[in-house]
Design brief:
By secondary structure, the protein is an alpha/beta fold. It is built from 6 helices and 10 strands; from the N terminus they run βαββαβαβαβαβαβββ. The protein has 2 domains: about 1-115, HUPs (Rossmann fold); about 125-210, putative n-type atp pyrophosphatase, domain 2, CATH 3.90.1490.10.
Length: about 220
């Protein structure tokens, strides 16, 4: 049996996929939903996500959608994958009940299994597993009322986690406090090199503007 992983390119979806694979699940596809050329909420361009998926080595299915059409497009996409033998979907939810209820309802209506490898883990356990496995991630967006601009584009680290603790911010950003892009780890053939072009502010968020690092070896701003 094969499974598809719900994929934002961030730490939770990546770790959930990795943990599912370690438990014996065969991941045939990564599935992401985008809007106007970027990953919803994260702000990462679809081209960078495609590069990431190439380095992971699992085919990526990208679907353009609005929030209003999200459930409809989610169901249509999963149905198309069911026809290819997919039996379930892996998600990176941690502890928000409404997320899990939606997942279980929609997957139940589709007749596929909902797999939640990280569900119920404490935030520090999730982060410990992420770092211990050798993953590296960059902070790509963050709420400007909670997190300073200086963190946009920097690595997720224990230093950053201590900063969040001091500000009483959810350590995993489960409520959208911050989002990440994974650039390296045990699933990757090699590191995804990205360069920080700048930081924008909009809709109450800092958003790091990323591009693939230059092939000429100029890594002055690469992460």
């Amino acid at each position: 049996m094969s499974y598809v992983a719900s994929w934002s390119g961030g730490k939770d979806s990546c770790l959930a996929c990795y943990e599912a694979m370690r438990s014996g699940f065969r991941i045939s596809h990564l599935m992401s939903f985008v809007h106007e050329g970027r990953i919803r909420s994260h702000g990462v361009s679809v081209s960078i996500l495609r590069l990431q998926a190439e380095l992971v080595g699992i085919p990526l299915v990208q679907v353009e959608t609005s929030w209003d059409d999200y459930e409809k497009n989610f169901k249509e996409t999963v149905r198309s994958l069911i026809a290819q033998g997919v039996k379930g979907v892996v998600f990176g939810d941690l502890y928000i009940d409404d997320h899990r209820k939606w997942v279980e309802r929609v997957c139940g209506e589709l007749g596929v299994e909902a797999v939640e490898p990280l569900w119920g883990l404490k935030p520090e356990e999730v982060l410990s597993r992420f770092f211990a496995a050798g993953f590296e991630a960059v902070i790509v967006s963050a709420r400007s009322d909670l997190i300073g601009e200086e963190w946009a584009g920097r690595r997720v680290s224990w230093e950053f986690i201590e900063y969040l603790k001091g500000r009483k911010v959810d350590l995993c950003g489960e409520n959208g406090e911050y989002h990440t892009l994974v650039v390296n780890g045990p699933m990757f053939k090699r590191k995804l090199e990205v360069k920080i072009e700048g930081v924008n502010r909009g809709d109450g968020r800092w958003v790091a503007v990323l591009s693939p690092a230059n092939a000429d070896g100029d890594h002055a701003q690469s992460v």
